[in-house]
Write a structure and sequence with these properties.
Chain lengths: ~230, ~200
C-alpha cells in the first residue's frame, strides 16, 4: 500500500511555508507500521511477478485495484457502460506495458494516469461520434446515487435528493477535463496535490490553479445549495 | 490580517496545506469575522456536496465477469506481446547509453567503420609524405654541397694566385660551366692557364 509521508510544500508566492501533511488515501495508513511495511514488500513483489509475466500476479493486481479504477472512471464519464469499457482497457494496457514501469512504487499513480487518460479520450470520442448525448440526458447519470439516499424514505426528500444529484453531476460535467480530473482526484478520491501532479504529469502550481478554478466554478453553479 | 489576505489562503486552509502559524492566525480571524467564517463554511459544504455523489458497487458478479473479459483479451493483447519481448538485463536497464546504443546500433557500426577507414587513410598519407620529403631533402643537400664546392673553388682562384690579365679566362670558364651544365671545364681551363702562365 502507498505510504503517506510528509511532502515538501512551496507556497505560490515563493514563500517556503514548511511542510503540510497529505490526507490518508485509505484505511491502511491507520494500521501499525510493521503491517504497512509487510504490505509494501508484498505489493512490490506482486508488481515484480507481474512484470515477469506471472498470471496470478495479474489477478492479484486486478482484485486490489479494480474498484479504485472503476470508481474513478465512473466519476469521470458518468455512466456504467463507459466505465466498464475503461476498466477493461485500463487493466489490459497496464498489464501490457507493466514491463516498462521502472519504479514499482509508482504503479498506483501510473494506473490512475491510464484511467484518467482513457476517460478523457473516451469522452472526446463519444462527443465526436455523438453516439450518445452527453449534456442533456437525464439517464446519463442514472447510475449515480447520493451517499445518503439509502436512509431516506420520504418520497419528497427522495425527489429533492434526485434533483440535487443532477445539479452536482451537471456542474462537474461542465468543467474542462483537466479541472474535472483534479477536483475528482482531490475531493472525491482524497489524493494529495503532489500525487495528482504525478498522475496528470503537470506541475504542482497547475494542480493548485485548476483546483482553484474548479472550486470557483462549482461554487457559482451550486450556489443555491451552499447558502445558509 | 485583512479579510482579502485571509481569503487568499482559505483554500489551503481547508486542504490543511498551511503551516501551523498561518493556520492559527486564520483560526483567530475566523472567530472574529463572520463573513470569512461563512466563506469557509461554503467551501466545506461544496466538498461535502461533491462527496455525496457516490458510485454504487456493481457487486462481486460484475467483478468476476470483468476479469473473465480481461482474461479473454490477454492472450492476444498482453501475453503474446510479453513472450515476444526478451527481458532486459536489470543492471543496464536504466542506463542512458544502453538505450542509445540499442536505438542507433546499425548507424553506430557504420559510423565507427567510416571513422577507422578515414584514420587509416590519413596515417598512410602522412607516412608517404614524410618519405617523399626525406628523399627530396637528401637530393637538395647533395646539390647544395656540390654547388658550395664550386663556389669555394672559384673564390680561391679569384682571390689569390690568378693574375689580373687572366680574369677573362675565369669568366669564360664560369659561363661555360653554366652553358654545359654538369661538366666542369673551369678547373681544367684554369689549370691549363696556370700551366701556360708558369711556362711563360
Amino acid at each position: 500500500m502507498i505510504k503517506h509521508s510528509e511532502m515538501p510544500y512551496v507556497y505560490l508566492k515563493g514563500m517556503s511555508l514548511g511542510k503540510a501533511k497529505i490526507l490518508p488515501l485509505d484505511e491502511s495508513s491507520s494500521r501499525p507500521r510493521e503491517e504497512q511495511a509487510i504490505d509494501q514488500v508484498s505489493y512490490e513483489q506482486i508488481i515484480k511477478s507481474a512484470q515477469e509475466g506471472d498470471e496470478k500476479a495479474y489477478k492479484e493486481i486486478y482484485d486490489r485495484y479494480c474498484r479504485v479504477v472503476y470508481t474513478l472512471a465512473f466519476q469521470m464519464v458518468g455512466n456504467h457502460t463507459d466505465a466498464d469499457e475503461i476498466v477493461q482497457e485500463t487493466f489490459i494496457r497496464a498489464f501490457r506495458n507493466l514491463r516498462g514501469l521502472r519504479n514499482s512504487r509508482s504503479f498506483v499513480s501510473w494506473l490512475y494516469q491510464i484511467t484518467i487518460n482513457l476517460s478523457i479520450d473516451h469522452r472526446k470520442l463519444r462527443m465526436r461520434r455523438r453516439a450518445l448525448p452527453i449534456d442533456d440526458s437525464p439517464e446519463m447519470f442514472a447510475f449515480f446515487e447520493l451517499a445518503t439516499s439509502r436512509s431516506v424514505k420520504d418520497p419528497g426528500q427522495v425527489l429533492e435528493n434526485q434533483e440535487l444529484l443532477e445539479q452536482i453531476n451537471r456542474a462537474i460535467e461542465e468543467l474542462p477535463a483537466q479541472q474535472r480530473a483534479v477536483i475528482l482526484l482531490h475531493e472525491v478520491e482524497g489524493l494529495s496535490k503532489k500525487m495528482i501532479s504525478e498522475i496528470l504529469q503537470c506541475s504542482l502550481v497547475t494542480v493548485r490553479t485548476n483546483l482553484h478554478h474548479a472550486r470557483k466554478k462549482l461554487r457559482k453553479t451550486l450556489s443555491r445549495y451552499l447558502k445558509g | 490580517m485583512y479579510c482579502s489576505e485571509i481569503r487568499d489562503h482559505l483554500q489551503d486552509y481547508i486542504d490543511n496545506d498551511l503551516p501551523y502559524s498561518i493556520k492559527q492566525m486564520i483560526d483567530e480571524h475566523l472567530l472574529e469575522c463572520l463573513d470569512c467564517h461563512e466563506e469557509v463554511e461554503r467551501y466545506r459544504k461544496l466538498n461535502a456536496l461533491l462527496q455525496l455523489r457516490s458510485v454504487p458497487d456493481p457487486g462481486p458478479k460484475y467483478w468476476r465477469a470483468t476479469w473473465k473479459k480481461i482474461q479473454q483479451q490477454m492472450p492476444a493483447r498482453v501475453l503474446l506481446l510479453s513472450a515476444s519481448i526478451r527481458p532486459e538485463p536489470a543492471a543496464s536497464r536504466n542506463r542512458f547509453w544502453h538505450h542509445m546504443m540499442k536505438a542507433f546500433r546499425p548507424a553506430a557500426a557504420i559510423a565507427a567503420a567510416a571513422v577507422l577507414l578515414l584514420l587509416a587513410v590519413l596515417v598512410g598519407s602522412y607516412h608517404f609524405y614524410l618519405s617523399q620529403r626525406a628523399g627530396f631533402v637528401a637530393e637538395r643537400t647533395v646539390e647544395y654541397e656540390l654547388y658550395m664546392d664550386d663556389q669555394n673553388a672559384q673564390a680561391e682562384l679569384t682571390s689569390s694566385a690568378v693574375p689580373s690579365d687572366w680574369q677573362p679566362d675565369i669568366t669564360f670558364a664560369a659561363i661555360s660551366k653554366a652553358a654545359i651544365g654538369g661538366i666542369d671545364p673551369v678547373s681544367k681551363g684554369v689549370g691549363l692557364s696556370q700551366v701556360e702562365a708558369v711556362g711563360r
